[in-house]
Amino acid sequence: MRFPEDVPVLTDGVVTLRAHTIDDVEPAYRMCQDPVMQQWTTIPVPYLHEHAVNFLTEMIPNGWRTNTMWGWAIEYDGRYAGTIDLGDGEGGVGEVGFAVSPEVRGHGVMTRALKLAVRYAFDGLGWERVIWRAFVGNYASRRVAWKAGFRGLVTIPGGGRARGVRKDEWVASVGRDDDLEPQGNWWTVPVLEGGSIRLRGLRDSDAQRVQEACSDERTQHWLSGMPSPYRLEDAEGFIKTRLHMMAGGEGVAWAIADPATDELLGNVSVFNLNNRMDATVGEIGYWMHPDARGRKVMTSAVELLIPHAFKPVAEGGLGRRRLMVKAALGNSASAHVAEANGFTHVGTERAAIPRRDGNYDDDLVFDLLADEYAGR
Ligand SMILES: CC(C)(COP(=O)(O)OP(=O)(O)OC[C@H]1O[C@@H](n2cnc3c(N)ncnc32)[C@H](O)[C@@H]1OP(=O)(O)O)[C@@H](O)C(=O)NCCC(=O)NCCS
Q1: Residues of the signal sequence (predicted)?
Q2: Which CATH superfamily groups domain 10-175?
Q3: Is the distance from the beta carbon of residue 134 to the nearest atom of ligand 1 less than 6 Å?
Q4: Per-residue 3-state assignment (H helix, E strand, C coil) for 106-175
Q5: Which of 131, 177, 230, 249 has the fewest CB atoms within 10 Å, i.e. the most exposed one?
Q6: Closest among 124, 262, 116 to 193, alpha carbons compared
């Protein structure tokens, strides 16, 4: 192909992909000074003016000429807003990379640009599959990929590389016959208040309290899957992986906080939301910091989240039909939280919960149905 004559102009009426011009060098250079850009991409750091000149006037034009890379300027609101490129494509499979300037982020620009480029990969280049890769933790990029229909996300430890350093990587893809629409749910954490508590998302600053709560003897006894000893880095990892759980549609986790001080008192979550057999069920799990126990805080926390769990997804809820709580035989405080919230003990799974001493506890199963809850 000739550059720029043969570069197709792609537009959805709001965002336009077009060939780069020399005028894009300055805004592209400025975009690459952004620390977020440097953190999540493989651009050189420090990023010099000559890097932008080389990328836009050599690499991208040569990519088109040699049929190895197809890069466009993203135009939005009459200006250069970023760059998107497709690369490889051998055997009908290639990769996409993208970035937009900080001032236009959060307006859906990248999602639109990505859909245009992916459509071109299938219809213009005849590809079968487009692969997206991002360093673990780049939720903005992951969300763009999710909104554009990328699916099957996996994490590859050390799969990525930036400036000579290996990094954990997420990989997902979309195929030629797939809808370019989100697959599965990406849950958010609404703030729920009432009963003298606040449920909110977990924050990095909660790590110390999480560590204290999870190192506690009773927590360690009843939740035998928890690391032991439970270190601060376990707490930090727990907080980080809650985002991953929500983005993957598996569950939602709240910090139970004191509304006056915002200090973490405990944790409550609804999980197993991706059950393949029945995606209308959910299980509630919880633990309390020892200094907040015995004040009915967990009973109030579960009471606050039940209506959210039963509310339809279209109204911002979790769309559940049936909620479960499981409590090991003997964990009467946990069973009490379920019963106080109107759950019914429906059975006991025998020898179902491993203990640290190698034995197994029976597991009491409680459930609550959306229609019985609505009928109260
Ligand atoms: C990733 C990037 C291209 C997104 O561009 P954008 O124009 O803001 O994308 P969109 O507006 O289409 O969508 C971004 C979505 O991510 C969400 N988002 C942003 N930061 C987030 C975060 N930390 N956690 C969760 N979601 C986040 C936004 O709310 C938005 O979703 P919404 O529309 O449902 O509210 C931009 O952040 C960027 O250029 N980052 C630096 C370069 C980069 O990371 N490139 C990708 C490398 S793999």
Answers
A1: none
A2: Gcn5-related N-acetyltransferase (GNAT) (3.40.630.30)
A3: yes
A4: CCCHHHHHHHHHHHHHHHCCCCCEEEEEEECCCHHHHHHHHHCCCEEEEEEEEEEEECCEEEEEEEEEEE
A5: 177
A6: 262
Q: 21-39 burial, b if ≥16 CB within 10 A, otherwise e?
A: eeebbebbbebbebeebbe
* 324 in Cβ contact with 366 (< 8 Å): yes
| Whether the CB of 138 sits within 6 Å of ligand 1 | yes
Residue pair 85/71 in contact by the 8 Å Cβ criterion:
yes
Residue the block writes with tokens 């494509």: 89
pLDDT per position as a tens digit, 204-247: 999 999 999 999 999 998 999 999 999 999 999 999 999 999 99
Fold identical between 10-175 and 192-374? yes
What residue ranges do the domains of the chain occupy?
10-175, 192-374
Secondary structure of residue 1 in the 3-state scheme? coil
* Residue 170 CA: distances (Å) to CA of 167, 188, 318: 10, 20, 25
Beta bridge partners of 354: 360
Atom of ligand 1 nearest to the CA of 147: 34
Domain 192-374: state its class.
Answer: alpha beta
Q: Whose CA is nearest to atom 16 of ligand 1?
A: 140
Ligand 1 within 6 A of CB of 240: no
Kindly indicate the confidence band of residue 13, based on its pLDDT and cuts at 50, 70 and 90: very high
